[in-house]
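In the laboratory, one determines a bound structure by crystallizing the protein with its ligand and collecting diffraction data. In a computational setting the workflow is compressed into a single prediction: the sequence and the ligand go in, and a structural description comes out. We illustrate the idea with guanosine-5'-diphosphate.
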Amino acid sequence: MKIKSIELKVAAYNKNQYPDDGLTQIAVIGRSNVGKSSFINTIVNRKNFARVSQKPGKTQGINFYLVNNSFYLVDLPGYGYAEVSKEMKKQWSINIETYLNVSEYLKGAIMLVDIRHKPTDDDVLMMNYLKHRNLNYVVVATKSDKLNRQEIQRSLNVISETLEVDKGKIVPFSSLKKTGVDNIYTYLDSILED
Ligand code: GDP
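The predicted complex, in structure-token form:
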């Protein structure tokens, strides 16, 4: 996989706005502040493509990024942000669930967790949902530059046990050091070739 072009095709606020062109969609999912924007910027090799550290003050749309004119990376709003109202949280989860429920072109998911923290109940719920939907997924453990090698191994065990995911499916990732980028390209290739 080489990423040659990327453009924001649509920021969708309801399902009628989802692209309907038959191209494969791969979702990027995670808690707010997990490093999702940095992850997207790193794999597409652009500094400020996805906006880093947006403080959610309003409902966020689902961003459909068209990559190489051949598939979409679907940037779902980060969940679990503490400082927003219950109603807004509910609206977010409805937006995320609606997408995951109705998207017929969704073929894979990249689930992000912070390597320093045990996955939360929300993460476990999301993971179970991906499994239930029989989606091909990979777990990305972000900010791996913050831990040493031994700590990384320990964290991978915790993530693997908490999410009930094989360790082989977890990629330690650092936007700072660009660790794990090739694993993600391999993953994207495997979904697109399927
Ligand atoms: P988002 O809310 O999930 O989109 O997260 P952001 O990409 O905005 O990142 C949240 C914070 O984590 C920012 O302060 C980033 O600089 C920091 N961050 C993201 N990725 C990394 C990483 O790989 N290493 C380190 N050390 N910090 C990171």
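The two ends are 14 Å apart (CA to CA). Keep in mind that any predicted model is a hypothesis to be tested, not a measurement.
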